[in-house]
């Protein structure tokens, strides 16, 4: 049974609010080469629909919530990210889709590599072929 790989970050929270620190090769299991974020996602929008050959990523809903479909080619699981103190590890060769974004959702993603279209597998059939 595939399980989502969550990373629970230490929260420094007091009367002033909360703070989370992300550090490469510490609580993020790779060197961080790129950060991007997804926001203002309209209702009923689904994004992603790809896997990466080599890239590793950690996704964090720094605001709001969204759901993930994760598919390793054998099994599909769904999970929801709704805390700025929780990261979801998206391994290489994991098909992923994101949906059910709240209006206020800001989904931040830390990535182990620079943007490289050649690292994407954008066809589901192609993904299954690469897995098997
Ligand atoms: P896209 O891959 O469609 O996003 P999603 O996986 O959420 O569906 O990316 C949208 C656009 O942004 C596309 O034109 C490529 C560009 N982009 C970059 O230039 N750099 C990046 O780091 C990312 C993630 C996307």
Description:
By secondary structure, the protein is mostly beta strands. The protein has one domain (5-131): Jelly Rolls. The protein is 6% helix and 40% strand. It has one helix and ten strands, in the order E-E-E-E-E-E-E-E-E-E-H. The strands form two sheets. Strands 1-7-4-9-2 form a five-stranded antiparallel β-sheet, with no helix packed on it. A five-stranded antiparallel β-sheet has the order 6-5-8-3-10. A hairpin with a 4-residue loop joins strand 5 and strand 6 (76-81). It is globular, with a radius of gyration of 15 Å. The protein starts with a strand and ends with a helix. The model has no long low-confidence stretch (mean pLDDT 98). It binds thymidine-5'-diphosphate (TYD). Thymidine-5'-diphosphate binds next to strand 2 and strand 3.
Task: Note the topology.
Elements: E1 5-8, E2 34-39, E3 47-52, E4 57-63, E5 66-71, E6 76-81, E7 86-90, E8 95-99, E9 106-111, E10 120-121, H1 124-131
Antiparallel strand pairs: 1-7, 2-9, 3-8, 3-10, 4-7, 4-9, 5-6, 5-8
The structure holds thymidine-5'-diphosphate.
